[in-house]
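Example protein
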Amino acid sequence: MTNSLRVWLAFALLCLIWGSSYLFIRVGLEQLTPLSLVALRLLIGVLIIGGIVAARRHPLRVTRRQLCLLVALATVNTSAPFLLIAWGEVTVPSGLASVLNSTLPIFSVLLAAVVLRDEPLTLPRAGGVVLGFAGVLVLLSRDLAHAGIVWSGVAGQGAIVLASLCYAIAAVFTRRTLRGVPSMTIATWVLIASAAQTVLLSFIFSPPAISSLTFRTVFAVLWLGVLGSGVAYILAFFILENWGASRYTFVAYMLPVVGLTLGAIFLHEVIDWRILAGSVLVVAGVVMSSIVRGRAEPATEEPLDARASATDHGVASAAAPRPQDMRSLAPATDLPPAEIGDGAT
């Protein structure tokens, strides 16, 4: 098998893993509360990442200040968005959740322009932001067009969009405060801290009834923890190393497609014209927001160690992530390689 074919297979598998995260979150919520589901998947994710770190004998030493920053990052980049997505999916179909969470690159463009000031908000990018938010409004209109507003649906969708904002804030935070910290170090400490936060909260407020869980629920949790936080992490870096950040962004474009398709097939979710129109607008906005000077951003092949990253499904890399790297990760999964830097998907 050629290396090119291996990369394409890794790409397809990564899209499937992260795109299906929304489906398995929905399945897991059939028996678990949002808090207990997130706690279990992060606990499994820590074990997976811990095994990878141990196998590679990767050093995890950080300063006291960096450890405090990593704990803060864990809250904004993992604990909060994972909980928001899971809570939102109590009322929001998994396919729609995958589309709403794909707004991450749009928020990243705005924050990069306002906070980092090294990525100007060009006309194409501004157009992408407008299109993306127009798509969100179209999607929200499904719960606003009834005789009575379905506030639970609106709140759930708003929570998922807020999760995307959390990811974007985390990416900027990582770039400004954790430059020079290896991506694996960031990923490991972020998962440890976020697992500790959510497991403690779950133990106090929502302990899961493990013994009563069905095979369907257990499978969903294992898929999210093992694949979403473990295997996907390895695949993401493999693709970045071979394709560079520019082509890697195609992963983000595929997640809504995978999420909508799987939700319709396995959960019989209805895809009406508003979902289709809103999805097209959101994806078009994401594509436009990645354009620089009238053309797609060039693929860069610098070593991962020289770049910055910071997300969930993902993790962060040795130098903080650049805006184009940050926008390429998909969210709802774990720390995206951009922050690394998933799924919750």
In short: Residues 293-345 have pLDDT under 50 and may be disordered. The longest strand covers residues 291-292.
